[in-house]
Amino acid sequence: MSVVEQHARAHIVTDEDVAQLDGDAVPVVLRYDPDTDPRSVLIGLPGSHEWTFSRALLEQGLRAPAGSGEVRVWPCGRVQAVIEFHSPRGVAVVQFETKTLMRFLRRTYLATAAVAG
């Protein structure tokens, strides 16, 4: 299967780096590797912070608040979505355009379908 990788921009607020509060979007990487885990996606943030979590959680969170523990996802207005990451180092709140995440999800399902079909 082929890896899906999409570069995007997002607004990040963390409790360890208040410099992110200036409102500038930062580059992030959305990654799906079905050979490693076909049920998970990875989001890479600047500074080598990476989180892997359920692809289904990402999809559910675009429609209604979803998740608990380390990763939570919810819609924010009509065109944005928020992903909140919890770690021992602190909390990162990442705001994306919903269409960016939907495009990424669509690509992951197409990659899976191409192999299955």
Can you walk me through this structure?
The protein has 117 residues and is an alpha+beta fold. The protein has a single domain, classed as Roll (Transcriptional Co-activator pc4, Chain A). It has two helices and eight strands; from the N terminus they run E-E-E-E-H-E-E-E-E-H. It has helices spanning 55-61, 98-116; strands at 4-14, 26-32, 40-45, 49-54, 66-68, 71-76, 80-87, 90-97. It has an eight-stranded antiparallel β-sheet. A hairpin with a 2-residue loop joins strand 7 (80-87) and strand 8 (90-97). The longest helix is centred in the C-terminal third of the chain and has 19 residues, at 98-116. It is globular, with a radius of gyration of 14 Å. It starts with a strand and ends with a helix. The model is unreliable at 18-22 (pLDDT under 50).
Please give the CATH architecture. Answer: Roll
Q: Output the CATH topology.
A: Transcriptional Co-activator pc4, Chain A
Q: Tell me what portion of residues adopts beta-strand conformation.
A: over 45%
The number of distinct β-strands equals 8
Helix percentage: 10-25%
Overall structural class, as computed from helix and strand content, comes to alpha+beta
What sequence of helices (H) and strands (E) makes up the elements? EEEEHEEEEH
Q: What do we call the CATH homologous superfamily?
A: Sporulation-specific cell division protein SsgB
